[in-house]
Design goal:
By secondary structure, this protein is an alpha+beta fold. It has a single domain, classed as Aminopeptidase. It has five helices and seven strands, in the order βαααβββαβαββ. The chain has a seven-stranded mixed β-sheet, sandwiched between helices. α1 packs antiparallel against α2 and α1 packs across α3. The longest helix has 15 residues. The protein is globular, with a radius of gyration of 15 Å.
């Protein structure tokens, strides 16, 4: 079982690499090569993750398995949105994603947030549905270079 803890600045490079690896491993099931390449392009490197760690309006957590950063999740407190849950392919389907999501939901509950929303990539919709999220509508998410991905807006009452 993974351990979940708040992310630190020292984790941001590992977060960047696992985010890209996760996109490259799982997105091709639902998206064209051009879309996967655009989504996996992170021109700002680890800077956005570093900012999330520093930013008081977001909770960013990591899951560790045997001392390795195996996944990360991010909750935007102000907008009550789960911004991210990504798991490195080596640790996929072993409870890491669910542990991250549960931790973010607990953090939201501690702040008296009674529902969360998110924008799920098409490959992640079944995961979120199993966790109790309901589909609201299909939306477009713009990635690097203006390439759009179809995503699903989802919500869950906590």
């Amino acid at each position: 079982m993974p351990s979940i803890r708040p992310a630190t600045e020292a984790d941001t490079k590992a977060i960047l690499h696992l985010h890209i690896a996760s996109i490259r491993a799982f997105a091709p099931d639902q998206y064209r090569d051009e879309q996967v390449k655009a989504w996996a392009t992170k021109p700002l490197g680890s800077a956005p993750y570093r900012e999330s760690v520093r930013n008081g309006s977001e909770d960013i957590v990591v899951a560790e398995v045997e001392g390795e950063v195996a996944g990360f999740g991010r909750l935007d407190i102000a907008s009550e949105v789960v911004d991210a849950v990504f798991v490195h392919p080596r640790h996929a389907r072993n409870g890491v994603g669910l542990a991250l999501l549960s931790n973010l939901e607990s953090r939201a509950g501690e702040r008296q947030i009674d529902s969360l929303s998110l924008h799920a990539s098409l490959n992640a919709v079944p995961f979120y549905e199993q966790a109790g999220y309901e589909r609201v509508k299909t939306i477009a998410h713009e990635t690097t270079g203006g390439i759009e991905l179809a995503c699903v807006e989802m919500t869950k009452k906590l």
